[in-house]
Specification:
The structure holds 3 protein chains of 3 kinds.
Chain A (H helix, E strand, L loop, with lengths): L2 H12 L3 E5 L7 E4 L4 H10 L7 E10 L4 E9 L6 E9 L4 E3 L7 H13 L2 E3 L27 E2 L2 E2 L5 H10 L2 H8 L6 H8 L1
Parallel strand pairs in A: 2-5, 6-7
Antiparallel strand pairs in A: 1-2, 3-4, 4-5, 8-9
Chain B lengths: L14 E5 L11 E7 L2 E8 L7 H7 L6 H5 L6 H16 L5 H29 L4 H21 L8 E2 L2 E2 L7 H24 L2 H7 L7 H7 L3 H6 L6 H4 L25 H26 L16 E10 L2 E10 L4 E7 L1 H12 L5 H10 L4 H5 L1
Antiparallel strand pairs in B: 1-2, 2-3, 4-5, 6-7, 7-8
Helix pairs in contact in B: 3-4, 4-5, 4-11, 4-13, 5-6, 6-11
Chain C lengths: L1 E2 L6 E2 L3 H9 L2 H17 L12 E5 L2 E2 L4 E6 L9 E6 L9 E9 L2 E5 L4 H8 L3 E5 L1 E7 L2 E6 L6 E5 L3 H17 L7 E6 L2 E7 L5 H9 L22 H7 L21 H5 L6 E5 L2 E2 L3 H9 L6 E8 L2 E8 L9 H17 L1 H20 L15 H11 L10 H20 L15 H9 L1 H12 L3 H32 L4 H6 L14 H17 L11 H4 L9 H25 L11 H6 L1 H26 L7 H29 L2 H34 L9
The chains are: A alpha/beta, B alpha+beta, C alpha+beta.
Chain lengths: 197, 378, 712
């Protein structure tokens, strides 16, 4: 089924829950969906005999701070009918929540968890919405554009000085300083003792 | 289902067992929190992320072409297809046409890499259930593939061979003959290897009827590639959503038939990979035939790569349908990149299917899904 | 003559047995016999013999010191409690019959002690003696003499088998006492009589201490009369003292330098001379006086055994009179103990070496199988790799986890070590070379190997690690389960050999493959494989290596161990391969028997002993190779499959095989025996070997060109 037909079928069933079908100027035709009605649409996409999108390929969230939205992108594919479709949903950036579809596609479970983990999208009705890749006590959502990594995580520094920076420092150093850097403690009595201890 | 497994009654006393992240058979650093009653597991909860390098985050900080070496690390066992996925996505985004020779070289390297990846998969599977020698035999063949790939791109594991718009280099002189000679050598080895383990009674007993995933379940779980086909779903991106020049080849798509047990059991997942070797060899032979007729040009090097919009490209990697979603905002860097990988989706399968299995079966299940840790964590 | 109800072969019965046969119904008889036989066999005393006469069976056929020998009758013949003697017609042709006291322990069984009489006969022959003899049991019931004979047509082949280590001890004692110049003693009183020397008295009891004290302070009193003793010169005896004792020329006590173990019987008595015998000749020479005989006996040169021609009750006979036997100062048990200790050291010391070499060998084989190079750096061609590994492990820190139970944790490896090393005590490396040929040898092996499981559970539990615990748990279930089929598979062999002693079991087999127990009948053939597979499971080897399944349990029960303690576990594991090979080789594959060499000649020659050892080693290494081969070929069982295999298949099959073996022993006519062996050998041994060779040739021919690197 062509993308336009799929959209037509969707509008026929759920009306204004889907909108803004775009096929021109884009590589994969998509339509927008209202976050609050996404679950109904997903059920339709999954179960409708003409659609049968049984494979939830990919769930992606894209952060658009300029537009102040978080955009959800769902890539769907139908094995029986061999057609694909993309559904997008714009979520407000300050409270990005959308209905979970983990009960429709089991694949969505972990994929939604990942998007929650990395971009902080809340999935309403998800059975087990925990961080998946990052530790549970991680602060922030790394793939958001305004993410600043904390300097320390559990008393461990999260970054190291760049090797290039170190090389610049090294190049500018005097030979004595280089010697000291290469052999820490050499020529310094006090430090020597410390190392010996 | 195996009658043995469900003949057990658990006493209700649970022991929590921490398997990994440094466990020999978790195929990289994955951790499983196992609740077990003796040998019978109640659940095995995967705890992933130990290899998380935020490759998608890195993609936002690199140029489109500069990100190519990082894609090797998405799936280091089958890096060519990860290269290909990224290249395909960017090409789709930027409307770049790849020269035919480049496409053929991509297909050839993809298929060679698929063979070597499946070699690791089935070899490690045999090793995980206790047979060490098959692993060595099949790794010998993998070494040859590595040699071949080294000849064409200089690297044995992380190739960085595909480019946006083609491939990095043409194949060296005499490489085609060496490949063909190796194919002549490898094709009978498949049967020899098959006789060595596939039909081994112990092997079948360990794998048949184990952790059966039905076709519907497999689709719903988002299982892809050999794992999906083992469950009886007749789908292959190369054939059903052809990309590159795959449309020009004749090949079969092997699916699980439940020869030794139920469709979708571990043995099927294993056997499909063996069968895929044969198909890969077929594709390679055809590709080597057809590449002779192509033009010399192999890389349509884009002068300016600042695409806008988004694109989703899927390729058939060794661990199945690998999707790459790229969003461009008109700069030299990708605005958002996303890799959709087979192993990540398989983790949910392990979590669900491990209930009632034995500890030893968990190892077999992990191995049969051919999981690669960086593909999960990225 | 009658037809046997089962076998249909002709059967000759004595009148008694025959009448009993006719009175019973045939079926009841069969049932009674089978059940009786089963019972007997479980008591581990059973061997094939034709039920042709009143004396049906006699076992073990191979007799050695300390054996309890059972004479079995068909039917109820004997009277329990009545004075009983067992007579061997002729232990050697021309000799007088050998009579030993026995006792009827059941109405069909007479028991006697091999110590008292047969040992003597063994000693007389100076080693192995295979004789064919009929057996007569005589009983006196209410003043009436009853006699039961074995069929004349079917003499028993009795193998008199000296205890090997004992022999060594004897020789050492001999040397020692010769150096100390101690005394020998014959214990025979003769007087000149018409036609020769008449044996007046034979001393059967000799009181060493009393003898010597009397000797120091003559006159000698009545118990050992002075007449009995004529002491030879060695050992600082003065002529005067000698002369004082030698006051009666007719009476001979002589010495001889070859020493038998200290005897409580006089030598003459044990040789079979009896009061009233008339000694006609000694070594063919007519004897005129006691001195003459004493001179011959004492003199140097000549045979070890004097052939004494006697007239007993008017019948001529020949008696072999050994020219040795004297009390020694060094107690034989001490020498025997020292011999045992020396042998134990000799066997225990190379065990780590054996383990180490097998490790290297396994690594080399696996490398060969996997197209790798394998260890080739340390020592010649890598053969000292085990030494390097061992040294490295010994130098490592001995870690005990903080949460572990320190005592159990530390003790566990040693227990495994001890359990395995004890097995070496009863492994018969050659006929001579065995630390202790226990008469419960087989039982001993089965018992001490069970110590392994204690060690593994202790190690797994005390480590306080879940993986170790899982490993220990698996191994407990596995080893205990598989001990059953392994033991039952071996029981059949015990029944065939009629003994649990490992040396006896080896001796009961022949050198040629079809005389091995594995090809003795189809049941033992299958039993071999049951044992072999169960032994793999007991030894935690692939496909049963679940307790240390690397891909599942990290390292299993020994996960938490380090350093020297850790090194003991692998050592034990690999030495265990050797033990599996040795036990299988001993019980099924003919042990140290060399094809074409008789038991007697092999026992007589040191070189043949060495050759026998090499043959045994070859068999062991072949089995070890097969085990290694299996390890690098097969995947691993899952724990439930392993248990299923044991309890649902192996245990029933092994019991069936055991019963099958017993029925086979019972029912197989002797003429068919060899045919069965040959057929089993051809079908079970030759055919698979042929098919295997063909298969290998086919594979080689087919895949040869593929071995080459296609890229070169």
């Amino acid at each position: 089924m062509e993308a336009a037909e799929i959209f037509a079928r969707l509008t026929a069933e759920v009306g204004d829950a889907v909108s803004a079908f775009t096929a021109l100027g884009t590589r994969d035709p998509f339509c927008m969906v209202a976050p609050a009605r996404w679950h109904d649409v997903a059920v339709l996409l999954r179960n409708d005999a003409a659609l049968q999108f049984d494979f939830c390929q990919c769930i992606t969230a894209v952060d658009w701070p300029k537009k102040s939205i978080l955009q959800m992108v769902y890539h769907l594919y139908s094995y029986p009918l061999r057609h694909s479709f993309v559904v997008k949903a714009d979520l407000p950036r300050d409270n990005p929540t959308i209905q979970s579809v983990a009960d429709i596609w089991m694949a969505a479970d972990w994929n939604e968890r990942e998007q929650f983990d990395l971009l902080g999208v809340g999935f309403l009705g998800h059975p087990d919405l925990r961080r998946v890749l990052l530790p549970d006590d991680w602060v922030g959502y790394p793939l958001r554009k305004d993410y600043k990594e904390a300097a320390m995580y559990r008393d461990m520094p999260t970054s190291r000085p760049s090797t290039l920076d170190l090389l610049v420092v090294y190049d500018r150093a005097t030979p004595a300083e280089k010697q000291k850097a290469m052999h820490p403690g050499a020529g310094d009595e006090g430090e020597q003792e410390t190392t010996d201890e | 289902m195996s009658e043995v497994i469900f003949a057990y009654e658990t006493s209700g006393e649970e022991m929590t067992l921490n398997m990994g992240p440094q466990h020999p058979s978790t195929h990289g650093v994955i951790r499983f929190i196992i609740k077990t009653d003796g040998e019978i597991m109640h659940t095995a909860i995967p705890d992933v992320g130990y290899l998380h390098r935020s490759i998608e985050g890195i993609a936002e900080k690199c140029t489109y072409e500069g990100f190519m070496p990082y894609t090797d690390r998405v799936d280091y066992v089958c890096a060519m297809t990860a290269n290909h996925a990224w290249a395909a996505a960017v090409e789709k985004l930027a409307d770049i046409k790849v020269p035919e020779r480049g496409e053929y070289l991509r297909v050839i390297t993809d298929e060679l890499n698929r063979i070597s990846s499946h070699a690791i998969g089935v070899g490690a599977m045999a090793m995980d259930i206790g047979a060490t020698t098959p692993f060595m035999y099949i790794l010998r063949e993998r070494e040859y593939v590595n040699d071949l790939l080294e000849m064409i791109c200089g690297a044995r594991l992380t190739y960085n061979y595909h480019r946006v718009g083609g491939v990095g280099w043409d194949m060296p002189t005499g490489w085609r003959d060496k490949c063909l000679r190796w194919l002549d050598h490898f094709e009978p080895i498949i049967d020899e290897y098959n006789r060595l383990i596939c039909l081994n009674e112990l092997f079948i007993k360990r794998l048949a009827n184990l952790a059966v995933v039905t076709g519907e379940e497999a689709i719903s779980y988002g299982m892809v590639g050999p794992n999906l086909r083992a469950s009886g779903v007749d789908f292959d991106v190369r054939r059903d959503a052809p990309y590159s020049v795959y449309g020009k080849f004749q090949f079969d798509v092997p699916i699980g038939k439940g020869e030794m047990g139920t469709v979708g059991d571990c043995w099927d997942r294993y056997y499909v990979r063996i069968e895929e070797w044969k198909q890969s060899v077929r594709i390679l032979r055809q590709a080597f035939d057809q590449i002779e007729k192509t033009e010399k040009d192999f890389w349509n090097h884009p002068k300016k790569l600042k695409p806008k919009g988004d694109a989703y490209a899927r390729v058939e990697a060794a661990r199945g349908d690998m999707g790459c979603y790229v969003v461009g905002d008109g700069t030299a860097n990708a605005y958002r990149a996303r890799f959709r990988t087979g192993s990540f989706n398989s983790m949910k399968v392990i979590q669900d299917k491990s209930r009632g299995l034995m500890v030893a079966d968990l190892v077999a299940l992990i191995a049969s899904l051919d999981i690669v840790a960086p593909e999960i964590d990225r | 003559m009658t037809r046997h109800p089962i076998r249909g072969a002709s059967l000759r019965c004595s009148s008694l047995a025959y009448s009993r046969t006719r009175r019973s119904s045939r079926l009841a008889l069969l049932a009674a016999r089978v059940s009786g036989l089963l019972l007997l066999a479980v008591l581990a005393a059973c061997s094939g013999g034709p039920p042709d006469a009143a004396i049906r069976d006699f076992r073990p056929l191979q007799i050695e010191r300390d054996d309890k020998v059972i004479v079995e009758a068909s039917g109820d013949l004997f009277t329990v409690g009545a004075p009983t003697t067992v007579t061997f017609d002729k232990i050697k042709s021309g000799a007088v019959p050998l009579t030993v006291p026995g006792r009827a322990v059941a109405r069909s069984r007479v028991l006697f002690d091999a110590d008292r009489a047969l040992e003597r006969a063994i000693a007389l022959q100076g080693g192995h003696l295979v004789v064919k003899t009929g057996i007569t049991v005589e009983q006196t019931v209410e003043g009436q003499k009853k006699e039961f004979k074995s069929a004349a047509s079917n003499p028993f082949e009795v193998d008199l088998f000296p205890h090997s280590l004992h022999k060594v001890a004897q020789k050492l004692a001999d040397r020692a006492s010769r150096a100390a110049g101690l005394w020998t003693w014959l214990g025979l009183t003769v007087e000149a009589a018409p036609g020769g020397l008449l044996v007046k008295d034979v001393v059967t009891k000799f009181d060493h201490e009393g003898f010597f004290s009397r000797f120091d302070a003559p006159p000698l009193d009545g118990k050992v009369t002075a007449a009995e003793a004529r002491i030879g010169q060695p050992g600082g005896m003065t002529e005067g003292e000698f002369a004082r004792l030698d006051h009666d020329g007719d009476q001979v006590i002589a010495d001889y330098e070859i020493v038998e173990e200290p005897v409580s019987d006089g030598i003459a008595a044990s040789a079979g001379l009896a009061r009233g015998d008339l000694i006609v000749s000694v070594d063919g020479k007519a004897m005129a006086s006691a001195d003459e005989m004493a001179g011959l006996w004492k003199g140097s040169g000549g045979e070890i055994i004097l052939q004494v021609g006697v007239q007993r009750g008017g019948k001529p006979a020949t008696i072999g009179l050994p020219r040795f036997g004297r009390p020694t100062e060094i107690p034989i048990w001490l020498i025997f103990g020292l011999c045992m200790a020396a042998a134990a050291t000799l066997i225990a010391l190379p065990v780590p070496v054996i383990g180490g070499l097998i490790v290297v060998w396994e690594r080399k084989i696996s490398a060969w199988m996997q197209s790798r190079v394998g260890p080739n750096r340390v020592g010649p061609n890598g053969w000292l790799q085990w030494l390097a590994d061992g040294l490295k492990l010994i130098m490592k820190e001995d870690l005990v986890p903080a949460a572990a139970d320190p005592y159990l944790f530390k003790a566990s490896p040693y227990l495994a070590f001890i359990g395995l090393f004890l097995v070496f005590m009863v492994l018969p490396f050659t006929g001579w070379f065995i630390v202790a040929d226990l008469n419960i040898g087989l039982l001993f092996i089965l018992s001490v190997t069970s110590l392994m499981v204690v060690s593994i559970i202790m190690g797994g539990w005390s480590s306080n690690s879940k993986w170790s615990l899982l490993g220990g748990m698996r191994s407990a279930a596995q080893i205990i389960s598989y001990e059953l089929p392994a033991s039952v598979a071996l029981l059949g062999i015990a029944a065939l050999a009629g003994s649990l002693s490992t040396e006896t079991i080896v001796g009961s087999q022949g050198g040629a493959p079809w005389n091995w127990f594995i090809f003795r009948n189809p049941f033992t053939f299958i039993a071999f494989f049951i044992y072999f597979i169960s032994a793999l499971a007991e030894g935690n080897r692939t496909p049963f290596d679940l307790p240390e399944a690397e891909s599942e349990l990290v390292s299993g029960y020994n996960t938490e161990y380090s350093g020297f303690r850790f090194s003991l576990f692998p050592l034990v594991e690999w030495v265990n391969l050797f033990v599996i090979g040795a036990v299988a080789g001993t019980l099924f594959l003919g042990g140290w028997r060399i094809p074409g060499v008789s038991l007697a000649s092999q026992d007589a020659s040191g070189w043949l002993q060495l050759a026998g050892f090499l043959v045994f080693l070859f068999k062991i290494l072949t089995i070890v190779f097969v085990i290694i081969w299996i390890r690098w070929t097969l995947p691993r069982f899952r724990v439930d499959q392993m248990m299923n295999l044991c309890w649902k298949f192996f245990i029933p099959i092994s019991f069936a095989l055991f019963i099958g073996t017993l029925v086979f022993i019972w029912l197989l006519p002797p003429w068919l025996d060899m045919a069965v062996r040959i057929v089993t050998f051809l079908v079970g041994g030759c055919a698979p070997t042929y098919i295997f060779i063909k298969k290998v040739q086919y594979n080689r021919s087919r895949y040869q060109e593929l071995r080459l690197n296609p890229l070169l």
